Recover the amino acids of this structure.
């Protein structure tokens, strides 16, 4: 045993690609031999399951020991002396593989949709011994080791074995939930890489620290499910978009953000009180940079530790569901940052990203683009999306920056991109990934939904895959948002020249299942808040805002509003500060909030306002050509013949009396909401009580008082 093999030196120097081949128990010449590498140990003995101790020889001063075992049983322990202390250790190199042959097959095939049950760090018992199973994908690595609290962060102590086409694994006895860890990787050129966080970690340190944390997912309670059909096309869907770090803060405690537990106590109650049906969280996956708002994630399976633990995040989702609120997550499968501890060049080469920067780097954001042509990468992403629906019972995923995924030339100069195999600009692999992802979501979780932030004219984004679509449940209507915000920001005297900006959206309103988004992107980077865009004096600004919000709630499509907009936040959103809740002490802001509450309640209560949100049968223009007075009127319809609602919007500060509107049937109509009501801060012009249809004419009509810069909603009396 005194002459060391090259294999032994590879173990000592941390270069061995399969230390299980050398360490642990092996039969050599019919004799059971145990080898162990225990740096700093003075003496080591192998103890069999009957308690028989066999001293092991030190065969290298670095801490390599070898000796014969009294019998060939794999169930042995190591007894090691460190100074005056004697400890008994389980040998990680005596345990069977973590990944089954079926796991290896599915991972290689790219169809392991529950890969998070195998990759990452999983507390478990193996052969009755408690520990943690680690597994990670690094196909070009020469050596991968787990380093952490359990081994002095020494990469020589727990080198892993490689399986299949690059999946490294090890079971480490004695490791446990709460331990911090990373992977130490030697790249294909022999270079030692910066320590890497686990791509499938379920927990992480609070930034700026970047270690992964072992989480026992089995101990994280699953939230109760949301109500059935919460995402149905025929259901009301009004989404409150939230950045958890700046919704509310504690200024008296250093302006700290709320924890998941505190949010669970406050946020669902607030959302429910205002009548929203859903919350949408800006990305909660772990991310190193606060200023990215979560859109540059490094830990896709870990709820950010800024606000608490995974169990506490689950409690927030549970509280939302118990309050009747659906939960949507912003999900970012389009790009990732190049932080050295993250996915970038994970095993020393381009693994998750393309090697060529013309394919693999976003010029706008300085981030890296996933290689959707690599089987293991798309499996990783699909499993991640499904993970949130499975483990945390999330009700929907809003997919960020879909346009950047669909086009190879997205925001690139001429000659700065690589065409697809057909010579075109479409990213065929990304298209295939999105279709497959949506198919998996709706087949496995039919109550869930997906929504695409897609800003181009790509067809059939929210149409089924078997129709040739991308398969999303919904698409954000970015065109509606840009056109209508541009229109409402103009002085009312000029709006008659831009009448088409309101009309145009109805030409394509039913080509997709649309969500109307007044999102976080519209209240930052010099765009001003929604209120800040409104022209005129203070009274006109608030009247414009109220009329615009009512226009959105009366318009076909599901609704989305970013936090703060519901009470007329004056300044732009700042992710480092709380919303300006003190504004609610002013009646004009409280009036906007009261209007949002009433609009949500009306939207939910009146079937005509939501049942056919995505169906042309649910909409009919009544007045569309009155550009001189900037008045629009339309009819919303539900499934039943009497489920009707007339919406009239006046985008000028003039009052119009005896304004005639055609209605679908005779009888009494009742004004159920008027944004000019004094309770919202308006001038109280309107139609108190009921309005009767006029007797003359073949088509019934009503005579209305149309308030200034306002919208009114009328429903038929039964």
């Amino acid at each position: 045993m005194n002459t060391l093999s090259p294999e032994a030196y590879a173990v000592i120097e941390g270069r061995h690609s399969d230390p299980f081949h050398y360490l642990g128990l092996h039969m050599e010449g019919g004799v059971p031999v145990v080898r162990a590498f225990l740096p700093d140990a003075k003496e080591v003995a192998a103890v069999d399951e009957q308690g028989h101790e066999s001293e092991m020889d030190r065969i290298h001063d670095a801490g390599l020991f070898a000796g014969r075992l009294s019998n060939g049983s794999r169930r042995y322990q190591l007894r090691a002396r460190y100074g005056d202390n004697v400890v008994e250790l389980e040998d990680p190199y005596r345990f069977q593989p973590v990944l089954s042959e079926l796991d290896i097959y599915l991972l290689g095939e790219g169809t392991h949709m529950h890969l998070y049950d195998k990759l990452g760090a999983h507390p478990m018992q193996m052969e009755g011994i408690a520990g943690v199973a680690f597994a990670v994908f690094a196909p070009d690595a020469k050596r991968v080791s787990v380093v952490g609290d359990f081994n002095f962060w020494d990469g020589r102590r727990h080198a892993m074995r490689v399986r299949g086409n690059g999946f490294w694994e090890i079971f480490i006895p004695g490791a446990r939930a709460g331990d911090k860890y990373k992977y130490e990787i030697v790249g294909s050129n022999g270079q030692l890489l910066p320590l890497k966080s686990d791509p499938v970690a379920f927990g992480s340190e609070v930034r700026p620290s970047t270690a992964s944390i072992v989480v026992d997912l089995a101990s994280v309670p699953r939230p109760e499910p949301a109500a059935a059909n919460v995402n149905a096309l025929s259901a009301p869907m009004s989404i409150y978009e939230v950045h958890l770090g700046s919704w509310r803060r504690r200024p008296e405690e250093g302006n700290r953000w709320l924890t998941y537990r505190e949010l669970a106590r406050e946020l669902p109650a607030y959302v429910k009180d205002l009548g929203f049906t859903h919350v949408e969280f800006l990305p909660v996956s772990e991310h190193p940079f606060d200023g990215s708002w979560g859109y540059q994630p490094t830990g896709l399976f870990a709820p950010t530790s800024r606000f608490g633990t995974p169990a506490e995040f689950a409690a927030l989702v549970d509280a939302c569901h118990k309050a009747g609120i659906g939960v949507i997550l912003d999900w970012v499968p389009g790009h990732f940052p190049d932080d050295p501890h993250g996915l970038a060049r994970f095993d020393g080469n381009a693994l998750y990203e393309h090697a060529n920067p013309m394919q693999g780097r976003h010029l706008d954001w300085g981030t890296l683009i996933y290689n959707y042509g690599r089987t293991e990468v798309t499996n990783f992403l699909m499993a991640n999306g499904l993970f949130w629906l499975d483990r945390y019972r999330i009700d929907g995923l809003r997919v960020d920056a879909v346009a950047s995924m669909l086009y190879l030339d997205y925001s690139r100069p001429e000659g700065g991109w690589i065409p697809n195999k057909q010579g075109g600009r479409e990213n065929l692999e990304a298209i295939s990934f999105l279709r497959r992802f949506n198919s998996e979501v709706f087949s496995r979780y039919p109550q869930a939904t997906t929504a695409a932030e897609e800003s181009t004219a790509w067809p059939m984004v929210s149409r089924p895959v078997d129709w040739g679509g991308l398969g999303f449940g919904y698409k954000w209507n970015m065109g509606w948002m840009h056109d209508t915000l541009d229109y409402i920001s103009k002085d009312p005297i000029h709006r008659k020249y831009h009448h088409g900006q309101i009309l145009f959206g109805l030409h394509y309103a039913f080509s997709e299942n649309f969500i109307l988004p007044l999102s976080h992107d519209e209240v930052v980077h010099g765009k001003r808040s929604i209120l800040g865009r409104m022209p005129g004096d203070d009274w006109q600004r608030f009247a414009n805002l109220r009329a615009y919000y009512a226009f959105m709630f009366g318009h076909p499509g599901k609704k989305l509003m970013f936090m703060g907009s519901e009470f007329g936040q004056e300044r732009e959103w700042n992710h480092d500060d709380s919303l300006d809740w003190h504004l609610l002490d002013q009646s004009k802001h409280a009036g906007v909030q009261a209007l949002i509450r009433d609009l949500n309640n009306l939207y939910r209560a009146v079937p005509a306002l939501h049942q056919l949100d995505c169906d042309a049968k649910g909409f009919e223009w009544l007045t569309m050509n009155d550009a001189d007075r900037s008045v629009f009127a339309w009819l919303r319809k539900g499934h039943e013949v009497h489920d009707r609602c007339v919406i009239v919007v006046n985008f000028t500060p003039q009052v119009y009396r005896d304004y005639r509107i055609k209605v679908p049937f005779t009888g009494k109509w009742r004004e159920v909401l008027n944004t000019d009501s004094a309770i919202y801060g308006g001038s109280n012009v309107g139609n108190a009580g009921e309005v009767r249809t006029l007797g003359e004419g073949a088509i019934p009509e009503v005579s209305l008082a149309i308030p200034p810069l306002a919208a009114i909603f009328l429903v038929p009396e039964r």
Summary: Residues 587-605 form the longest helix (19 residues). The chain has a mean pLDDT of 95.
